Amino acid sequence: DAKTTQPTSMDCAEGRAANLPCNHSTISGNEYVYWYRQIHSQGPQYIIHGLKNNETNEMASLIITEDRKSSTLILPHATLRDTAVYYCIENSGGYQKVTFGTGTKLQVIP
Amino acid sequence: GAGVSQTPSNKVTEKGKYVELRCDPISGHTALYWYRQSLGQGPEFLIYFQGTGAADDSGLPNDRFFAVRPEGSVSTLKIQRTERGDSAVYLCASRRTSGGHNEQFFGPGTRLTVL
Question: How confident is the model at residue B4 (pLDDT cuts 50, 70, 90)?
Answer without folding.
Answer: very high
